[in-house]
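Recall that a protein's primary structure is simply its ordered list of amino acids. Everything else, from secondary elements to tertiary packing, is in principle encoded there. The following example makes that idea concrete.
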Amino acid sequence: MSTRDDRTSDSTQGDLVGTGGRPTLEDVARKAGFALRTAKKVISGNEYVPEATRRRVLQAAAELGYRKNPLAAGLSQLHEERIAIVYAEVTGEYFRTADHGFRRFADEYYGHGVEVRFATTQGADVERQAEVLRGLARDDSVSCVCVQPLSTSGLDGAIAEVVAAGKPVVTFGSDAPGSKRLAYVGPDAYRSGRIGGQILSRYLGASGEVLILSSVREHQQTRDRRRGFLDLITERYPDIRPVDLEIEDSAQTAELLRRHLARSIPDGIFATFDAAAIAGHVVEDLGATGVTVVGFDLSAEVSALMRRGTLDVTLAQDPEGMAYQSLKVLFDLLYQGITPRPLNHTAVTVLTSECLDPDPSAGG
């Protein structure tokens, strides 16, 4: 497996014949003024190379009398493509699980000529994520990018720069639907919100006050989950009364929720972001009974709260499978020319405490 590999030099094995004065692909790249990797993409017919670049490389090839060596082209597939993975580590358990999927893909496909490189950042810093993307647009060693965007539209310009550099972009886990990304791989957030609304409303007997924990960040998953939730209860459960609690900084979630619950205890809580476990702990600490909590993602902490009956339902997203599938989409594009569907929705699993494996610490 090759991950976190910062090699930037291009392999010239086989393609640079250099016998009898015959021009090589390296000669073509040098004459056109591009890196060898870029020249290889043009000669191999990669459709994501900018047209101006393609013309310059082909013109240089024609002027030099370069002819592609079929045997060399086959040999050069080893370590030919590098996929950069960009995400911000804002939810530890979620991304640790996603990491397993990325690394499993890297293990399985390394021998096919693909490498993965991680470009992670800390915290919900949209500008920092944009800087990383712009750096990858200029990095000739990177063929394409897989990104979980922190903002629905705030990264559109940076994604456009990556695509303009001839590198397809796939979003995973959260989308930037107005950007030039090629495809999205992950749950249908709007539908997930509707599912959460249906579950919580039925737990409450179709009436009562529900506190919606949402983020002020322009994040596609949380925004669309909230919208789906509200649409569902408006359509089907008019006696459910939604109340919004918007969180600007996730580090403040517990304190803001504690203040709200000190004033008024809702019948239910719907967490649109990674706040279900926090909500469960606050409910326990305050001794608030009869509060139904529904949220997203499965972790050891969430499982413990569910077993204690504090957190009722979680919608698990399978980040490992999602991560693996996002890289597979790019692999199929790069190596087999298969253009993915714009939306590749992955499953969401509804879990209650009875769905969990027995607690190993309980004994018996």
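The first helix runs from residue 25 to 32. The first strand starts at residue 81 and ends at 89.
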